[in-house]
Amino acid sequence: MTQQSNGVLLSVKDLVVSYGAIRALHGISFEVGEGEVVTLIGANGAGKSTTLNAVSGLVRPSGGEIRFLGRRIDGKPGHAIVRLGLTQVPEGRRPFLGMTVRENLQLGAFNRPKSEISETMDRVFKSFPRLKERLGQTAGTLSGGELQMLAMARGLMARPRLMMLDEPSMGLSPILVQEIFSIISEINRQGTSILLVEQNAYMALRVAHRVYVLETGEVVLSGTAAELRESPRVKSAYLGE
Amino acid sequence: MSYFLQQLINGLQLGFVYALIALGYTMVYGIVKLINFAHGDVFMVGAYLGFFAMANWALPFPVAILVAMVGCAVLGMVIERLAYKPLRNAPRISALITAMGVSLFIENFTNLNFVFGPAPRAFPRPFAVRTFNLGGVSITNITVIVFGVSILLMVALTWFVNSTKTGRAMRAVSMDKDTSRLMGIDVDRIITITFGIGSALAGAGGVLFGFAYPQIQPLMGIMPGLKAFVAAVLGGIGIIPGAMLGAVIMGVVETFTSAYVSSTLRDAVAFGVLIIVLLVRPTGILGRPGREKV
Ligand SMILES: Nc1ncnc2c1ncn2[C@@H]1O[C@H](COP(=O)(O)OP(=O)(O)O)[C@@H](O)[C@H]1O
Ligand SMILES: [Mg+2]
Fold it and tell me: Is pLDDT at A3 greater than 60 in this prediction?
């Protein structure tokens, strides 16, 4: 395994994805470094979910390359990519509704040794204490905010090196959004790198180190969060200033 | 009264065999939304494997059941890999037509003289039939075996699906394949395992059917297969307890119709029940829209 220089975890180069005749990504490139929070902001339909799904092996790219820890992962099946330490918390949370919170978490640790699961669960409950009280409840009984927490906790159960989150703030009240984002920062501080996809640019720019702006399948801007907060284009189109 | 109880026992016996077949239909439907029309033929192959194990290889009946289960599991998994997996992303009708093709192939292939041959064969008795008399109801040791083995297998399946890691993965895949992949589940492998388990149960059902109704031939899977499919729909296709319940209802209704009305009407009444239930509850007895399926 060739660890790339300067600690790059994920590197995406000239990624092209099409759905039949519709081209959703026109050759985008970006990187996530070890320890970073990188965010991809963009409007609805910009291609954010498509990007994450291509990285996760759920959709097959028609061009470009995706490397994780220096190794090509494009073309690998989704389950194999998770094993490398790259998980996705999908848009809409996608809980297994008929199952209990515990079963959802166990599924998150599907490829981890059984012996470590309860220890990982305890660690995850430090960030999501509310889930601990709900272990035996079916996911269908949880509120929207709790479901987002469940989705993130489930992702952490795989002990990822890089966790990708697809619009975690969607449909949540401002207070919950604050809470979710502070948990994301905390997860990052504990050593998990983050690739965050958001329409909520305001919050995303607050937690991210670096930012890429995606418009109709192309990266139109990139830089540090501080730089992009000052960009007139970002200000007018994404921050409503 | 004892005649009624007697018929109830007979109906349950038939229902349990149907249940072992219906479980495979319902699990496969739950996970890939495919009605595996070849499933009744897998049941038939199971009966023949049990026949060969006992008649030709002189194996004791529990081993014969195991031989049938393993053989059918392999057959079911091979069918899935060769016939259905290549069509996973094709329109559903393609897989359905393929399933009918696989069914016809198995029936006609096994009908050949150098395979099983068209002539019916007498299924060997695992032991001398003994009849116990319980308050006017006579129960044979064969019935006891059919009840015992079916209940054991249904309990084992329920435990497997609800309490093991693979069972949990089967439920996850039946709910949401992409999210299952994000959990690190090899979805194709779980689908193949599901076909294997469903087919193994049908194989056991085939041997028990041979014990209870001791004549087998290559087309013997068609009618029980159809009834088990109806049972699965009746209980709510995709729902494991639904298949068990639907199958028991089918077996009892069919047996009571022959006992109290006329045996020529039994199939008509059995299918009539399906039509009525589906008119009242289109999702089947235990089916609710959106309910978890495997
Ligand atoms: N499964 C699909 N089939 C066809 N087109 C799709 C599919 N998923 C997304 N698209 C299209 O690809 C583009 C990007 O979508 P998506 O990646 O979901 O955007 P975002 O997540 O940024 O809202 C959109 O034009 C969308 O309509
Ligand atoms: Mg999206």
Answer: no
